[in-house]
């Protein structure tokens, strides 16, 4: 990746991370900053999600397939990255879909999910120009989810959020399809503080390697 104009030259950006880390908020702000468009997950449109948080074993497969159909359909609406008139900022990576599936489905259900996934998803989805992976400690994620009080998230258990955070860490440890900026979001408020957002933008613009880390500290 070039060390100049890393962010402003990117045509396809993905902001990823576990529930409560701030990925959708950052995706919206980056799209506004870049005069781009967003492609966002729509959990409120998944009719099984609330029931999944209440009874994961019963509703995991239906929930996962509903998300898979939704995500694939949204991505199919987009032209190839090199034909995009405006940059696109998404808050999910299609390859990550299997992370949730492996975490919540039984072996037989996962086998069925993989067959459907492979039939629907492109065999080699276009890699984004840049992935911004937001991290936070499980206890931080738990506190943020509880604080924002989204109705559909009321059933999320603390143990599930902890396991999810660990699964994201393992996933991105091996991810190399696109340049990745790993951001510790514990002590940076890129939504409400303009200085923090600009600091993050400046750090991304200065990327020189395929994988870099940003930890502001306290």
Account of the protein in words:
The protein has 218 residues and is of the alpha/beta class. It has a single domain (12-215), classed as 3-Layer(aba) Sandwich (Rossmann fold). The protein has eight helices and six strands, in the order E-H-E-H-H-E-H-H-E-H-H-E-H-E. A six-stranded parallel beta sheet has the order 2-3-1-4-5-6, with helices on both faces. Helix 3 (56-76) runs antiparallel to helix 4 (97-104), helix 3 packs parallel to helix 5 and helix 6 (138-148) packs across helix 7. The longest helix is centred in the N-terminal third of the chain and has 21 residues, at 56-76. It is globular and about 45 Å long. The two termini are 29 Å apart.
Chain-wise SSE layout:
Blueprint (H helix, E strand, L loop, with lengths): L11 E5 L6 H12 L2 E3 L9 H6 L1 H21 L11 E3 L6 H8 L2 H14 L9 E6 L2 H11 L9 H17 L5 E5 L9 H12 L5 E5 L3
Parallel strand pairs: 1-3, 1-4, 2-3, 4-5, 5-6
3D shape:
globular
Strand order of the largest sheet: 2-3-1-4-5-6
Largest sheet features: 6 strands, parallel
Rg is 17 Å
Count of helical stretches: 8
On the 0 to 100 scale, the average pLDDT is 88
Outline the low-pLDDT stretches.
1-5
Can you identify the CATH superfamily? P-loop containing nucleotide triphosphate hydrolases
- Proportion of residues in extended strands: 5-15%
Number of strands: 6
CATH class group = Alpha Beta
The CATH architecture is 3-Layer(aba) Sandwich
